[in-house]
Design goal:
The structure is a single chain. The chain is of the alpha+beta class. Helix content is about 25%, strand content about 35%. The strands form 3 sheets. Strands 1, 2, 3, 4, 7, 10, 11, 12 and 13 form a 9-stranded mixed beta sheet that branches. A two-stranded antiparallel ribbon has the order 5-6. The chain is globular. The model has no long low-confidence stretch (mean pLDDT about 95).
């Protein structure tokens, strides 16, 4: 063993509060470039229009990414009923509007029950899932037809926090692989009026909470 050889990079883990409009990879790229680290990745994608906890790992710690990805997630956000969009969120324009004034709290609670527990979920075509080696969202943005397979996910808890129709504020605790945008789409379909996601924040990944996270600016200022 070369006594002058540098020790292997033990790696590091960062808890970042992802800013609005940034992709998860934007955050990785920015921090990786600032710290001049070659090996870095994130443990679970957040959509550009979502904020909240993003776990980044570098060096040998990247081996832990899969463990973090497998942990349950907690989200808060707002579902707007009576309008749909192709992306199930604000990335695309509203394509259908429906009357919603007849919707009552009992119907909202019934939709919540139908979307709780073990459910089958169809991911959004505007997602990072790869189809034939290409990200689904890229194909969707180019107007190509995208076919995705339904997947089984666990919605451990789905709580309505505040209802100010058409806005429904919620909290969801779920398994790996759950798309909250799909929950919003399905929520609207159960109500018969359509819906889309207008706000999303990841509060927690396993035991790690966004309250422990730092802004990217603060991390880079150290």
């Amino acid at each position: 063993m070369d006594p002058n050889a540098l020790p292997a990079d033990p790696g590091q883990v960062w808890l970042i509060d992802k800013p609005l409009h940034w992709t998860s990879f934007d955050v990785v790229k920015k921090l990786r470039g600032h710290l001049k680290i070659k090996k870095m990745g994130h443990a679970g994608t957040l959509d550009p229009l979502a904020t909240g906890l993003l776990i980044l790992c570098s060096g040998k710690k990247t081996k832990e990414i899969e463990t973090y990805q497998g942990m349950e997630k907690e989200y808060t956000g707002i579902i707007k009923i009576g309008q749909t969009t192709p992306s199930f969120d604000l990335e695309t324009e509203v394509d259908r509007t429906s009357e919603f004034k007849h919707v009552r709290l009992a119907q909202l609670n019934e939709a919540v029950q139908k979307l709780s527990g073990n459910i089958s979920q169809l991911p959004p075509v505007y997602s990072a899932i790869k189809v034939d080696g290409k990200r689904a969202y890229k194909s969707a943005r180019e107007g190509e037809s995208v076919k995705l397979k339904a997947r089984s996910v666990l919605i451990k808890k789905f709580d309505l926090q505040t209802v100010e129709l058409p806005d429904v504020h919620f909290r969801i605790i779920c398994s790996k692989g759950t798309y909250i945008r799909s929950i919003a789409r399905d929520f609207g379909e159960y109500l018969g009026v359509g819906a889309h996601l207008t706000q999303l924040r990841r509060q927690r990944i396993g035991p790690f909470h966004v309250a422990e996270a730092e802004t990217l600016e603060n991390v880079m200022a150290k």
